[in-house]
Design brief:
Length: 382
C-alpha cells in the first residue's frame, strides 16, 4: 500500500516539501546512497528501491561507477572521509567484477545474461579515474586502462559503437553514447593517453553528424519509441558528452552544439521548474510526468554551460530544476529506504523506473546541487 499512498500524494500535490538549505538536502541524499550500498551483499550500490514490492534490487555496476566521483566530491566539500571510503570500496568492487576482456557487464548483478556493454563500461571509467586520482592505487589504473582500451577496440572505424549494445535496451545505435565518450575524456585526464581522447572526439563527431537540421539527435533513447521521442535522461546524457568532449578537445563547435540543444530543452521547462519527461524530434513535449533524473542532469548541463560560456541566462533554468527536485525529496520520513532519495518519475507511476527510487537519480541530484554551490569554481562533476 505504500506505493499507492505515495502515488496519491504525488497526484494531489501533497508530496511537495519545504525546500531547505542545500547542505541539508545533500546530506540526506548522501546518507541514502550509503543505505543503498549497505542494502546489498557486496560493495556496489543497489540499483533501486522498489516501493511497490518493498525490496532493494541488486547492485548495478554501471551507476555505481559514476556515483564514485559524487561521493568523493561530497567527502571533500564537507570534510566527511567516510563517504570517500565508501567510494573507494565501490571502486575496488568494480575492479573485482570487471570482465576478463576489460569491459563492464550489462544490467544488475542478478541478471542472468552477463554481457560486455559499451555504455556501462563508459560509465565505470568515471569511478576508476577518480578513485585512481584520489588513492593512486594501481589496481584502479589497471582497470581504467583495460576498460578504456576495450572501448577503443570495440569502436567502428567511423567512431560509432555498433557492437556490444545492452541486451536490456531496444535501441542499439545510441546517440547517448557520447556519455561513454565523456568517460574516455576522464580516463585521458587521469592517465594522459591521447588515443582515448581521439576516440571520444571521433564518436562525438559521427554522432553530431547524424543530427537533424534542428539539432535533434536520432536514436537517443533507451527504447525505440513509435514516435521517436527521447527521455530527458538520455537527451541530457548526449548533451553532456558533446559538451565535455568539446571542452577537452578545444572544439568550440561542439560546445555550441551543446548550447543549442540545452536551450531547446529549456524552452519547454514547466513553471514549477520540472521538465516534461519526453521530447519529440521537433523539440515539443507530450507527457505530463517528469523524469526526475533528467531534471538534475539538465541542471548540471545548464550550469556547466554557464560556467564555460559565461552566459548567465543558462543558470536560471538550472536553479529552477534543482529547486523542483529539492521540493520532492522527502528528508523527514521515518522510512530509511526512501529518506533522502529521489524517484525515477514524478508522479511515481510515470513510465521511467515506475514506483522505484534509482540510485542515479540521487547521484545526479547531488551533482547538480554541489555544482550550484560551487558555481564559481569549475569542478570535474561527473
Amino acid at each position: 500500500m505504500n506505493h499507492i499512498k505515495q502515488l496519491i500524494k504525488d497526484k494531489i500535490g501533497a508530496a511537495v516539501y519545504p525546500v531547505g538549505p542545500i547542505e541539508a538536502h545533500l546530506k540526506s541524499a548522501a546518507d541514502w546512497l550509503l543505505v543503498a550500498q549497505d542494502a546489498t551483499p557486496d560493495d556496489g550500490l543497489a540499483h533501486s528501491y522498489d516501493v511497490r514490492n518493498r525490496t532493494w534490487n541488486a547492485s548495478y555496476p554501471e551507476t555505481t561507477g559514476y556515483a564514485i566521483p559524487t561521493l568523493y566530491d561530497y567527502a571533500q566539500l564537507y570534510d566527511a572521509p567516510h563517504y570517500a571510503e565508501a567510494a573507494r570500496r565501490m571502486a575496488v568492487w568494480e575492479s573485482e567484477i570487471q570482465l576478463a576482456d576489460g569491459a563492464v557487464r550489462a544490467g544488475t548483478m542478478s541478471a542472468e545474461v552477463v554481457a560486455p556493454t559499451i555504455f556501462n563500461t563508459g560509465q565505470v571509467l568515471f569511478g576508476w579515474a577518480r578513485a585512481y586520482l584520489e588513492t593512486r592505487d594501481e589496481r584502479f589504473k589497471i582497470s581504467l586502462t583495460r576498460a578504456s582500451d576495450w572501448l577503443v577496440e570495440a569502436q567502428d572505424d567511423d567512431g560509432t559503437w555498433r557492437r556490444f549494445a545492452s541486451p536490456f535496451t531496444t535501441s542499439k545505435l545510441n546517440s547517448y553514447n557520447t556519455r561513454s565518450a565523456f568517460g574516455l575524456v576522464r580516463a585521458f585526464q587521469a592517465l594522459g593517453e591521447a588515443r582515448w581522447l581521439d576516440a571520444a572526439v571521433k564518436n562525438v563527431d559521427v554522432t553530431v553528424g547524424r543530427a537533424f537540421a534542428n539539432g535533434w539527435l536520432p536514436d537517443n533513447c533507451l527504447l525505440k519509441m513509435p514516435d521517436s521521442s527521447a527521455l530527458t535522461h538520455t537527451i541530457a546524457y548526449s548533451i553532456r558528452g558533446i559538451l565535455e568532449v568539446g571542452v577537452a578537445s578545444g572544439r568550440d563547435d561542439l560546445v555550441e552544439r551543446a548550447v543549442k540543444m540545452a536551450r531547446l530543452v529549456a524552452a519547454r521547462q514547466r513553471e514549477d521548474g520540472a521538465l516534461p519527461a519526453r521530447y519529440l524530434p521537433d523539440w515539443k513535449t507530450q507527457v505530463g510526468w517528469t523524469c526526475v533524473t533528467g531534471n538534475s542532469q539538465m541542471a548540471i548541463n545548464w550550469l556547466r554551460l554557464a560556467q564555460i560560456t559565461g552566459d548567465m541566462s543558462l543558470k536560471e533554468p538550472a536553479i529552477r530544476a534543482n529547486r523542483f527536485n529539492m521540493s520532492i525529496q522527502d528528508t523527514m520520513t521515518s522510512d530509511d529506504n526512501v529518506r533522502g532519495a529521489l524517484k525515477g518519475s514524478h508522479p511515481i507511476n510515470g513510465d521511467y523506473l515506475t514506483y522505484r527510487y534509482p540510485n542515479w537519480a540521487t547521484k545526479f541530484f547531488m551533482d547538480g546541487l554541489m555544482l550550484e554551490q560551487q558555481f564559481d569554481k569549475v569542478r570535474n562533476i561527473g
